[in-house]
Amino acid sequence: MEKDQDKILSEVTTGEYKYGFYSDIEMERIPKGLSEDVVRLISAKKMEPEWLLEFRLKSYRHWLTMKMPTWPNLKIPAINYQEIIFYAAPKQRTNVNSLDDIDPELRKTFDKLGIPLTEQKHLAGVAVDAVIDSVSVKTTFKETLAEMGIIFCSFSDAVKEYPDLVKRYMGSVVPYTDNFFATLNSAVFSDGSFCYIPKGVRCPMELSTYFRINSANTGQFERTLLIADEESYVSYLEGCTAPSRDENQLHAAIVEIVAEKNAEVKYSTVQNWYPGDKEGRGGIFNFVTKRGMCKGENSKISWTQIETGSAITWKYPSCILRGDNSTGEFYSVAVTNNHQQADTGTKMTHIGKNTKSTIVSKGISAGMGQNSYRGLVKVLKNATNARNYSQCDSLLLGDKCGAHTFPYIEVDNQTAIVEHEATTSKIGEDQIFYCNQRGISTEDAIGLIVNGYAREVINKLPMEFAVEAQKLLQISLEGSVG
Amino acid sequence: MLIIKNLKASIAGKCILKGISLNVKPGEIHAIMGPNGSGKSTLAAVLVGREFVEITEGTVTYLGKNLLEMAAEDRAKEGIFLGFQYPIEIPGVSMVNFMKTAVNEHRKFKGLEPLSASDFLKMMREKKELVEIDSKLANRSVNEGFSGGEKKKNEIFQMAMLEPKLAILDETDSGLDIDALRIVANGVNKIKRPDNSFIVITHYQRLLDYIVPDVVHVLYDGRIVKTAGKELALELEEKGYDWIKKEVENNIVA
Amino acid sequence: MNGISEVTERYLQLYKDNIEKISGISSKYINSFRAGAFEKFRELGIPTKKNEAYKYTNLNIFFDHDYKSYFLPVESDFVKAEKFRCDVADLDTHGIVLLNGFYPTINDKLRQLPSGVWVGSLNEAATKFADKIEKHYGKYAKSETDGLIHLNTAMASDGIFIYVPEGVILTKPIQIVDLVQADDDMFNQHRNLIIIEKSAQISLIICDHTLSPHKSLTNAVTEVFVGENAHFDIIRVQNEHNNAGKITHTFIHQEKNSTASSNNMTLHGGLIRNSTYHHLGGDGAESHSYGLFLADKFQHVDNFVNVDHAFPNCTSSQLFKGVLDDMATGAFNGRILVRPGAQGTLAYQKSNSILLTDDAKMDTKPQLEIFADDVKCSHGATVGQLDSEALFYLQSRGINKREARLMLMFGFAHEVIQNIKIEPLRDRMDNLVMQRLKGDLSRCASCVVRCT
Ligand SMILES: Nc1ncnc2c1ncn2[C@@H]1O[C@H](COP(=O)(O)OP(=O)(O)OP(=O)(O)O)[C@@H](O)[C@H]1O
Ligand SMILES: [Mg+2]
To answer: Which sequence spans correspond to the domains of chain A?
Structure first.
């Protein structure tokens, strides 16, 4: 029985990455390496205004004074920034309005990924901004949304068309000095999505950004800015994939969210960057800074993430609960298989009164994977009646992987109630047996149990993507988990 | 002893009790029955002063005093006891210490000296026998790790210790095995005196075989929709609540 | 680290000023560790908040101070200390009084109890039990991050030595009354070594108590070896005044099928930091780590626990509770490490704290690091107030609010106290905690021991 289970486990945990193809698209790349000139070059390529170049240069100069953080529970090989290409774009002009103008090879790429650039009926509920390497190639349903006053476009377009909004909010949640990778991003960010939901508007469809790394030796540094004005609502989803390659590629993104009074933002991520091969060669280094500010009263920001990809993940989607009665949520499933490493979690900073936060984190480790939850719940002195509940569970599949939990709790207000619970265990043999007794194979039983384990989080995803996420989870653990 | 007039109460803005009137005289046993969620526990909560229930209308007079103005512990000392539907576990607080404090608070209220340790233990022993609870339970922390039935027996034990004038038993019979049910009922009957009263909330007739009620009320959707003698309980056992629900609806239509 | 901090510099100097004297009264073997430890201390320094293990404790309030003396005992100290006699009512123990961390006896520096257990001065034992010392000294107190442990190894000259031979079961607990008394501000460090051989059993009570009002700082390291099938309990009761800093590091190494427990009871203290390291170094070992602290005024209490599951089928638990009043601050930092191959591990951790005022503050950092799959590990942490449901239950039985709160707080604390197996001590702790919670305790009356 034990032997069988091991065999099944090893089978389940050796699934193949399905998005590893490479598209031969004519690209324009700048020479590799990083310097002030490169920063200027990126800015020039994007025909940016002076103030933005200043912002980049300021960030770059600050970055030079910084060191890579060593506190994560990760083994990160040295990264040579002079070997990375910081800008790559399809030759053909970007974010065209007519589909006929899009390079057919590009269209094929996104079709293959299941992200149609046409505004198809069966995906009518989802507007997509498709980003490949450094640029956005197409944003769908732009016009439909514009009728309601919703701005959904590439970051570059936003800089040109809505400079005031960008100026006002960019860096207001994640300052350029925030951390090593955020500062790097602030210097060299290429493209990303921009979204503004005006006062009182409930966005009628899911907004989504699809990130694709295609070029070799290229870093991806996108930046997303999402503003929900008073009384508005939006649900936002991002997905990501990359070709299978033997060398590591760097992805260092920033997501900033601002929720004004009574606004609600749901931000979901299905992260499926190339995780590297079974021996741990290649894969994306995913170093991301995501933070939301519940600025107004009664505002709410909810992060949901399904993290199955990347060789190394370093990511802490966080909420600053500034407005009174505001709410922050974090739901996460993180899978590490083979040689993957993840150090992920959240920070909930309670500043306003009656603020609430909920954290549900489910880690799954298989193969030689190392999975760490790292979280901070901080209740400041004036945050009367703050409430937090955290639940962090880890599931171990196999005896060579690791699961780690580092929750920090800092409470400076007596009316606060902060509760944290964590468990680590392997799949319950009695649960498997119960399934067996009902005629379910061990493989299916493991699948059922893992899915049940992650259910609470998957249920938080928009319906269209919950099924995808579930499949992804299975693929990531394929071989043993049904 | 207890006079409830047109009591309306809500929880988190939702109206749960929609005008309840009830008159309990000394020595009477009232049974309250009714479908799940009809408001029985809410009524009990109002009587013992739980703050999450907001009283929007009506009065409650207990022994001539305005009950609604009294603090929870004062109500207890005035003789109101609630056997909780879901008794809470309090780790680290021993039953002995817990009961000693409660008993002595009651005595102080009556102007009596606190019991000496030996008198108190003697009393514990007697009452334990009365309700036939395992003496080991009394050595543990309050309700901690008790089984469902043990928790209920523990409620009755506490009632025996505190000798209330008005005891409200909220589904004290659920979760009890047949012997325990008899024990609990006997306990109640032994404590019963001509001047004290009971409100027994239950779903089952079988408890009422042991504790014979003077009056049976049916609480439905926040109102007492039917009041009759003990035969009502038998009728409900047989026919369920549907006919009552119909009656109510017809009345509204009419 | 580039550049040595000013605070660290103080202690480097202290070493240079005193090392000759210290080496002069110690054995060669113990001296052989000093130079290396000194280098390591120079490298690591006095821990700052940048050190993850000290993230929530500012040591500088006590370390950045000019202590007029580094305590090294002279004969007159021993004479003075010998006059102390302390005992706990109803508690039948083998009592030992330590003064400023030193075994204050002139003649009988190492004595054998009737049961065959040896107790005495570590220095003395270093010659008499040279083989034991060489086998165990410096083997368990190791750290790559904590400079204070190295500072102790570099400079401690004496402390307690206990040797329990194979199979000896000591029914009476050994009680060490650890007094700090000085005529001036004083820094002292001592080093204990406790060896419990196969199938032996003892309980040890350490009462930390400060007598003189001067500012004092103690940095103590205790190494414990618990042999196969052996059993060891250590209970530390801390009663210090607000001007006293106490840093303890206790390393408990366990062999196969042994059981050990540690219980840190902090009733009072200026700055308290207790680090307890449980090393489950053999199949089937079991460890329990408990802690209770009650802090008010400007006190700070930090408990650090590290449980290392290095072998399969071991069990561990941690239970730490704190009540913080006034401006007091508390920290709990508990780590469970399950090493590769440590299958069949059961590890459990719980920490709960209650804040009584707006100015009190609690920081909690539990950690699980798990490298084996057949494990059941869990932890729970809460910071909050008394349970309002429970409060209501008590009130509904006629208990007034103040009393009900007190009962709940007591119950909260009792969950830790009930793990003390020595009944008279448990009762005494219950009493002290109750009085402390009622707030009518003066420093000296709160002492678990009575001294004459
Ligand atoms: N704390 C609360 N918050 C919100 N709603 C509540 C709360 N307590 C009770 N309710 C609601 O009030 C209604 C009445 O509940 P109550 O517990 O009084 O019913 P009951 O008659 O005792 O039911 P049962 O027979 O199942 O015990 C239910 O709809 C219940 O969901
Ligand atoms: Mg009920």
So the answer is: 2-22+110-175+191-476
Question: If you average pLDDT over residues C117-139, what whole number do you get?
Answer: 91
Contact criterion met (CB below 8 Å) for C261 and C231: no
Of C362, C236, C354, C231, residue with least CA distance to C291 = C236
Can you list the domains of chain B with their CATH numbers? 2-242 (3.40.50.300)
Instruction: Determine contact, residues C265/C235, Cβ cutoff 8 Å.
Output: yes
**pTM attached to this predicted model:** 0.81
- The complex scores an ipTM of 0.76
Specify which residues A128 forms β-bridges with: A208
- Closest to A432 (Cα-Cα) out of A482, A472, A474: A482
pLDDT at residue C444, as a whole number: 47
Instruction: Give the number of the ligand closest to the Cα of residue B15.
Output: 1
Whether pLDDT at A37 is above 60? yes
What distance in angstroms lies between residue B16's CA and the mean position of ligand 2's atoms? 12
Nearest to C155 by CA among C40, C68, C75: C40
Say how far apart CA C159 and CA A368 lie, in whole Å: 46
pLDDT exceeds 50 at position A272: yes
Per-residue confidence (pLDDT) for residue C86, from 0 to 100:
61
pLDDT at B148: 85
Selecting from C343, C353, C371 the residue whose C-beta is nearest the C-beta of A402 gives: C371
Taking each helix axis from N to C end, the angle separating C401-417 and C423-438, rounded to the nearest 10 degrees, works out to: 150
Q: How confident is the model at residue C2 (pLDDT cuts 50, 70, 90)?
A: very low
Residue C332 and residue C353 in contact, taking contact as beta carbons nearer than 8 Å: yes
Q: Which residues of C touch A402 (CB under 8 A)?
A: 369-371
A60 closest CA partner among A76, A43, A77, A73: A43
Q: Provide CB contacts within 8 A for A56, sequence distance 6+.
A: A39, A42, A43, A186, A187, A188
Lowest mean pLDDT among A163-172, A367-376, A451-460, B7-16: A451-460
Which one, of C333, C296, B88, C355, lies nearest residue A418 by Cα?
A: C355
Name chain A contacts of C384, Cβ cutoff 8 Å. 416-419
In the predicted structure, residue A87 carries a pLDDT above the cut 90: no
